[in-house]
Design brief:
This protein has 515 residues and is of the alpha/beta class. It contains 15 helices and twelve strands. The radius of gyration is 58 Å and the shape is elongated. The N terminus and C terminus are likely disordered.
Length: 515
């Protein structure tokens, strides 16, 4: 019974196991198929990802390659462009040079006269040519109307700029209006052109600063501060520049700025009373007129051969004219009476006088510096790269506008440093060497041995003297006797002659009566 029951259980479980096995296989197969499908899907994703990565990598490589090629091409293009640009620039320069050679840019240079301004003209001309310009020089020879005509002629030649030193600073207003209308720049050289808006820039030595330097040098050389403290006085006279020259006025103002305090407190006394610019100006910078003015001052304001202690002038020819007048009046250079004479310009003759002590000092204004700076202003303005350099934009008002100015600096030249003008090549040594003074060789006085006094004579000398006196007395006595005998003999002959003449006359009369 038990065995039968066990067999039944075993059969039941085996049947159940078979049935479970069939279902389990299906599930297992399904699960296996699902897993396989998942595995297959995962594989496909990885392959796609790898493919995409490879594609991206390839793309990046191609992009980098393209960038490199583009960069290389860009560099080559740049080089090619630069080469073409250089070639074009070279061609343009060549064309410009050829054009310049056939038609240069013209610059008009108009100066008052050739005698005084030829040195400036040479420097201006050389500098302009060096910068590729064609300078057109013209001298007015002191004729203001002629200078106006010259400006009009230059306008017709289509110059690019004007450099002008005016003959008449107030006489160019109308003609420069035409220049302004033509948009041609004007550069005023050394003397400011007045009453026009055509002037662009101005180059000068700065008259006001020069005048201040003169005043400072007078104060130093005459020790005016000490004179002021000691309540003493010094006399001064003025021979200034031409009244029609604006730069002369600036210089006068500078002198007065420095000396006015000493004039106000009586340390300096102008005996003639001529102090204003109108009273002291020498028209047209005339040396002859300066000498005449000095002579009048001495005659009218100084008595008994007196002269001023200081003669302040605004130009070298005035100083030389004063020097000549003083020497004519008998004042000896180098003596205590000889005054301090000031000059401006360092002309050759004036420097010789400075070296010999006749002129106390002169202001050196190197025209080479002036010409260099003016030409540079013109060149910078025409090239348009930048504005010309100026160091004063306040004090130079020409009546219409304030003119941008470049001020060159003067230098004081006296007997101690005049050789600087040789060192810098401005003069040769023989040109400014002081004139040799005549050396007077003193004649030695003859030594006279005094005769001994009678009371100091020795006995031998007294005896000799007595013997000489006796000898002379005997000689005189003998001579007097001889003279007396000779006189008696002559009187006897004379009496005999008279008696003879009487007899002859008597006989002659008797013969006449007989007839």
């Amino acid at each position: 019974m038990k065995k039968k029951t066990a067999v039944i259980f075993i059969g039941f479980f085996m049947t159940l196991g078979a049935l479970s096995g069939c279902g389990g296989n299906d599930a297992t197969e399904a699960a296996s198929e699902s897993a396989q499908t998942e595995d297959e899907g995962t594989g496909e994703d990885e392959e796609m990802q790898e493919a995409r990565e490879e594609e991206q990598e390839q793309k990046e490589k191609e992009e980098k390659k393209a960038e490199k090629e583009a960069e290389k091409a860009s560099k080559e293009d740049k080089k090619e462009t630069e080469k073409k640009s250089e070639a074009e620039d070279s061609e343009n320069k060549k064309e410009a040079q050829e054009e310049t050679e056939t038609e240069s840019v013209k610059i008009a240079v108009l100066l008052p006269d050739q005698e005084e301004w030829s040195d400036d003209a040479q420097v201006l001309e050389a500098n302009l040519k060096e910068d590729g310009y064609e300078p057109l020089l013209a001298y007015a020879e002191g004729d203001a109307s002629r200078q106006v005509s010259q400006i009009q002629e230059m306008l017709e030649q289509q110059v690019a700029a004007f450099i002008i030193t005016p003959v008449d600073a107030y006489g160019l207003t109308d003609v420069l209006a035409e220049v302004k209308e033509a948009e041609i720049p004007v550069f005023s050289y050394d003397d400011l052109i007045m009453d026009t808006n055509a002037v662009k820039y101005y180059t000068t030595f700065g008259g006001r600063q020069a005048g201040q330097m003169i005043a400072e040098e007078i104060i130093k050389k005459e020790n005016l501060k000490e004179v002021q403290e000691e309540k003493e006085t010094r006399t001064i006279e003025f021979l200034m520049g031409s009244p029609d020259d604006t730069e002369a006025l600036f210089l006068y103002n500078g002198v007065m700025e420095g000396l006015q305090p000493y004039l106000d407190d009586g340390t300096l006394v102008c005996t003639s009373g001529k102090i204003s610019f109108d009273d002291t100006g020498i028209i047209r910078w005339s040396r002859e007129l300066a000498g005449t003015r000095m002579s009048q001052l001495l005659e009218d304001s100084y008595e008994d051969g007196a002269v001023p202690d200081i003669i302040c002038t605004g130009f070298d020819d005035a100083a030389l004219g004063a020097e000549e007048t003083l020497e004519t009046a008998g004042i000896v250079p180098g003596s205590e009476q000889w005054p301090l004479i000031t000059g401006v310009g360092c002309k050759e003759e004036a420097v010789r006088s400075v070296a010999s002590g006749k002129i106390g000092f002169s202001l050196f204004m190197d025209y080479r510096d002036l010409a260099d700076n003016c030409e540079q202003m013109v060149h910078v303005y025409l090239t348009g790269e930048e504005d010309p350099e100026v160091n004063d934009y306040e004090q130079y008002d020409n009546g219409v506008k304030i003119i941008g100015t470049y001020l060159c600096e003067p230098q004081v030249i006296d007997g101690d440093n005049y050789e600087l003008l040789i060192d810098n090549g401005y003069y040769e040594e023989e040109e400014i060497a002081p004139e040799a003074e005549e050396t007077v060789t003193p004649v030695p006085e003859e030594s006279v041995t005094p005769s001994p006094k009678e009371d100091e004579a020795t006995p031998q000398e007294s005896a000799a003297s007595d013997w000489e006196e006796d000898k002379e007395a005997v000689k005189q006595s003998s001579g007097e006797k001889e003279d007396s005998d000779l006189k008696k003999e002559k009187e006897s002959d004379k009496d005999e002659k008279k008696a003879s003449e009487k007899v002859t006359l008597k006989k002659s009369k008797s013969a006449s009566d007989d007839k």
